[in-house]
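Notes to self after the call with IL:
- keep both proteins in one doc
- input above output, always
- annotate only the second one for now

Protein 1:
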Amino acid sequence: MKKVFAGCALGLFAVGAGADEITYREHIRPLWLDRCERCHGSDAPYLGDFEEDRKRYEADDKGPRMDTYADLAFFASWPDTGALMRRLDDGSNTANGKPGNMYRELGRSEEERQANLKLFKRWVGKKAWTMKRPAEISKEELLRFKLAY
């Protein structure tokens, strides 16, 4: 079953972008460089290493590496489905209304955070923005992801 989901997720990344579509290269990458690169750049650990020594990396102000399209997509669609959304969400999609732990990093003001969150949501796909974890998501839900390069 995991192979089916992985295949579906990889197929999603090959889809081209329309003129008004949010793309990784044009929209998300520059935003990521400005707001996320310091902690999630090329000197950050891959997820497995981060999970093995979380306290040390957090003390160094480092989170899991997300410095490429593939690494960032890993945390959105598959295999770590919803991780990006759970961390960036403003609380409007959570049961307790609490924002994700990285929401505050999306901007210097609430207005900037909301604008940047909107970009991420459009990149992921409004119908794909989910708080679900990998075991909770269906093939049909995975097919909603846009993640245009």
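Protein 2 (the one to annotate):
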Amino acid sequence: MINWTKIEDQVPEEARRLLYFFEGTGVWTGFYYGRDEDYPNSNNHVFGSHSGFLTGDVTHWCYIDYPEEGAWRVEEDKEWFEVNKQEMLETQKEWNDTMKGLFFDE
């Protein structure tokens, strides 16, 4: 059984693979990237994967625990996260800047 955690109850660790849930798209596998202080909502948590990122939409998450034979994945996941975090943050900033220009007066 999966033990889902509400994002408002506990924030996950960065660089640890997890499942995250968004009602609009369902369950995804990815990582937690922290908070986007520019996002105009109190749920400004950022989750992402190779498919993209979500800010403010994820309501629940849970860690993926590997069996003993898969323990090597923990370090591989951390490496993947670190390599891709900067690219994801740059994409997110571009997106935020575009949205501000379209929807908000500066």
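Annotation: The two ends are 47 Å apart (CA to CA). The longest helix spans residues 72-103.
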